[in-house]
Design brief:
The complex is a heterodimer of chains A (about 220) and B (about 500). Chain A is mainly α. Chain A contains seven helices and no strands. Chain A is globular and about 55 Å long. Helix content of chain A is about 75%, strand content about 0%. Chain B is globular, with a radius of gyration of 22 Å. By secondary structure, chain B is mainly alpha-helical. In chain B, β1 and β2 form a beta hairpin. Chain B contains 19 helices and four strands. The chains are: A mainly alpha (about 220), B mainly alpha (about 500). At the A-B interface, α5, α6 and α7 of A face α5, α6, α8 and α9 of B.
């Protein structure tokens, strides 16, 4: 098996950094820092799109990278900051310490999930002409960690960030498997994400207005 | 016919936007007009799609399978828009206009989904249904609504994320044969089906069943469903149950078609059978012991989605025809049941079934109509669900799935007892006395501005319940739904039968 070239190496490093940021979001207690990590992760996906565009001669990916950056690096964090308002700059009630597991246990569980995602998708033998298959396995690992984040954190802000980072993981998988997908559809996906962000933000605000907390521990009224 | 397709996509959206800016009374009227117009437009499409597939601008496509789902959704849109005019009486202007904006956009997204000719656009339409309906679930502004909407948006969005991954794997599979610039159009994917690589198609199908299955309410990803259905305003509950679940199931059917063309029918059918049986088992047991009338109906929806999955897994033409008929009959029956439940919750000021007695005597129209809706949902003849379930079971036997067909009959019978015992207690048990007394509960109740549902967990103390209907608007659409159920059960129109037969053939791989 030949070692990866510079292009594959760069793509894999970017994907691995995205996975590390996913772990950072899982571990981070403050919403403000979670949004920053999400922004960095989103910036990396745009960088990866540019790398693939340059290396594989796919000019439409430049446009996608620009759109993605405009939406995920600028608009989504801005909308989140706006909707969360003052709650984002402080240790909002119900966010820090919202783990169902201890932070260390949560990270250990996430490592297990990431390993499962990485090796299970890595063994599928799906080859891409656009990007290294390792990046697809890392995207799968990110999907599992994002689900883990939504499960182990009991506050609405972290759960929303978990969903947005899940979308980043799917974008990474999309760059590997579907780099040639028409720009029109990719753009529609991105605007759909923006719509989802707005709705998540509105529901977070509504939740905070009712309970004066971002915690979900009291969302147990509906059972059975 | 392309003008008709475009009109179906334009009318509800424009109505939604206009509804937000006009007085509430006008919003109600134009929504009724839009609902009826959309149903008429879909009816106009049916003779065409019963004999061929309509395509427009390469992104819009209506075939017989789409036609069935369009019929179900547009009928419910029309019926519920009439019902909502009565249900929203007394609500504030602001609430009503927000409601109609969301309601029409929600209907638009559900009508758009079956018209989309590409798996990517289908995903976008289903995603829009999620975000809009989440806001509609939250619109009551109660603790329960906030909790239900958050659970719904989080769980359904995670599911939709998996469905997006499924779409990407489908693109990857298609690109191997159709080239990098294929646009996930359904038609070319189906034609290329036998040449697509197996692993990505298998993965795409599994992810689609899990992802879209979250919105269908298939076990074990159904957990949002009872909460959202019980806490949403009743017109929204009816649309969620009768139309949204079916729309999501439609998305699974598209992946099923591609997977069957590539992998053969074994794997897709086995997968759906497993999910279907598990869902039906869970729902038939959970129907017992439900205290909230809308939760009770929500579990019935899980049951019927399980029946759809099992029906597809049988694969026989008669079973697939039964599935398509079931989609329409379930939309009418569940719409009726929820609309009836809405009248009960207004009458008794509670959603608790234990506090509802003597419904037949108190509600001269809605009482019997609710009973008939429950009987229809329980597959009692002569209603459409009896015919559709009969066809599904016959298809199971014809395809040699004896154990699954037997399990279906047993579980549906268990669910029947659950539905019948709860409903008859509500309707036939006489009131302890003329005064339905109890202490006021702590559930969602009316706000000072009249913006929330007038529903309590127990009836108001010393409230005297008088015989009569809250509004004629809330009775008329239920009568129409009942007529449709009888029509589907006794003698479906020839064009409809042709549509269903063609749709069943398309699900078996016909062009």
């Amino acid at each position: 098996m030949s070692p990866p070239g510079v292009y594959e190496g760069v793509a894999n490093v970017i994907a691995a950094l995205m996975l590390l940021l996913e772990f950072g979001m899982l571990r981070q207690a403050l919403i403000r820092d979670q949004v920053r990590l999400y922004t960095a992760q989103s910036a990396l996906i745009s960088v990866l799109a540019i790398v693939i565009a340059a290396n594989r001669n796919l000019p439409e990916l430049y446009a996608l990278a620009g759109l993605s950056a405009a939406l995920k690096v600028v608009a989504v964090p801005l909308v989140l900051r706006r909707l969360l308002g003052s709650r984002i700059g402080e240790e909002a009630p119900g966010v820090a310490g919202s783990y169902t597991l201890s932070p260390a246990s949560a990270v250990l569980v996430a490592i297990g999930l990431a390993a499962f995602g990485f090796f299970s998708f890595g063994s599928l033998g799906i080859h891409s002409r656009q990007a290294p298959e390792t990046a697809l396995a890392i995207a799968a690992a990110m999907v599992f960690v994002a689900f883990g984040l939504m499960i182990v954190r009991r506050d609405v802000a972290s759960q929303a960030i978990g969903f947005f980072s899940l979308e980043n993981a799917i974008s990474l998988a999309s760059l590997v498997l579907a780099a040639g997908l028409p720009l029109l559809l990719e753009t529609a996906f991105l605007f759909d994400l923006l719509l989802a962000v707005v709705v998540f933000g509105m529901l977070i605000r509504a939740h905070h207005a009712r309970s004066e907390s971002l915690s979900t521990t009291d969302l147990t009224r509906l059972r059975g | 016919m392309s003008g008709v397709i475009l009109a179906i996509l334009i009318v509800p959206l424009v109505t939604g936007i206009v509804s937000f800016w006009v007085p509430a009374r006008a919003a109600a009227r134009i929504t009724i007009a839009a609902g009826i117009a959309c149903f008429g437009l879909v009816l106009a499409l049916i003779p065409e799609v019963a004999h061929g597939t309509l395509s427009y601008l390469s992104y819009l496509r209506v075939d017989a399978v789409s036609g069935v789902f369009l019929l179900a959704t547009s009928f419910l849109y029309a019926a519920v828009s009439v019902y909502a005019a009565g249900y929203l009486k007394g609500r504030s202007e602001r609430y009503t206009r927000r409601f109609y904006l969301g309601f029409n956009v929600f209907a638009w997204a559900m009508l758009a989904a079956p018209v989309m000719g590409s798996l990517a656009l289908l995903w976008i339409a289903v995603e829009i249904t999620t975000v809009v309906s989440a806001l509609l679930v939250a619109i009551e502004g109660t603790d329960g609504a906030a909790e239900a909407s958050w659970k719904y948006v989080l769980i359904a969005s995670a599911g939709i994320g998996l469905a997006l991954l499924a779409t990407i794997f489908a693109y990857y599979a298609g690109a191997q044969v159709l080239g990098e610039h294929s646009n996930l159009a359904i038609e070319p994917l189906l034609r290329a089906g036998p040449r697509l690589p197996h692993t990505p198609v298998r993965l795409a199908f599994m992810l689609a069943v899990l992802g879209y299955g979250t919105k269908v309410g298939l076990f074990p990803v159904h957990t949002w469903l009872p909460d959202a259905h019980s806490e949403a305003p009743t017109p929204v509950s009816a649309m969620l149950s009768g139309a949204l679940l079916a729309t999501s199931f439609y998305a699974i059917l598209r992946f099923y078609q591609v997977a069957s063309a590539t992998l053969g029918s074994g794997f897709p059918r086995d997968t759906l059978l497993a999910f279907g049986i598990a869902s039906l088992l869970l729902a038939s047991l959970y129907v017992f012991g439900q205290r909230d009338v809308k939760r009770f109906l929500a579990y019935s929806s899980v049951e019927h989605m399980g029946i759809l999955a099992i029906g597809v897994s049988f694969g026989a033409p008669i079973a697939l025809a039964g599935v398509l008929l079931h989609v329409m009959a379930h939309a009418a029956a569940k719409g009726n049941a929820f609309m009836g439940a809405g009248v009960f919750t207004i009458k008794y000021q509670t959603k608790q079934m234990s506090a509802m007695h003597g419904g037949l005597a108190l509600l001269p129209w809605s009482g019997p109509l609710f009973l008939l809706a429950i009987l229809a949902l329980s597959a009692v003849p002569p209603f459409g669900i009896f015919r559709s379930e009969f066809q599904i079971v016959a298809g199971g036997l014809a395809s040699g799935n004896y154990a699954a067909a037997a399990a279906l009959v047993v579980l549906v019978t268990i669910a029947f007892f659950g539905l019948a015992t709860s409903a008859t207690a509500m309707l036939l048990t006489p009131k302890p006395d003329e005064t339905a007394a109890g202490r006021p509960g702590t559930g969602p109740g009316p706000r000072a501005d009249g913006s929330a549902v007038a529903v309590r967990t127990r009836p108001l103390a010393s409230q005297v319940l008088t015989r009569g209907e809250p509004s004629a608007w809330m009775v008329v659409p239920v009568v129409a739904g009942l007529a449709v159920l009888v029509l589907l059960g006794v003698h479906p129109p020839a064009e409809l039968t042709e549509l269903i037969t063609r749709g069943a053939a398309q699900l078996r791989g016909a062009p």
